[in-house]
Specification:
Strand order of the largest sheet: 1-2
Radius of gyration: 19 Å
Largest sheet: 2 strands, antiparallel
Order of helices and strands: HHHEEH
Shape: elongated
């Protein structure tokens, strides 16, 4: 290993749990492995809700069901970014 480790390399060297996640995320498939399953589920939901417009989202509800909802309303709520 290099003599002069950068801040990031030092962090991953000192934090094995974080390093394991980093390796997993940067491996083929990584953090996007769920994408195809996610896209299939949303595509199926859009089809069952008969959504053809790009201004309407299939919004996932807390009980796991989907409902047709304005894209502006759904994305304005923040989702995963609202923390």
């Amino acid at each position: 290993m290099a003599a002069n480790l950068g801040k990031t390399a030092k962090h991953y060297k000192a934090n094995p749990k974080s390093r394991a996640k980093h390796v997993k995320d940067n491996s083929p498939g990584g953090k996007y492995a769920h994408s195809n399953e996610y896209k299939r589920a949303h595509s199926k939901a859009r089809a069952s809700l008969k959504i053809r417009s790009s201004n309407v989202d299939a919004s996932k509800q807390s009980d796991g069901s989907y409902k047709a909802e304005s894209r502006k309303t759904n994305r304005g709520r923040g989702g995963a970014k609202r923390r």
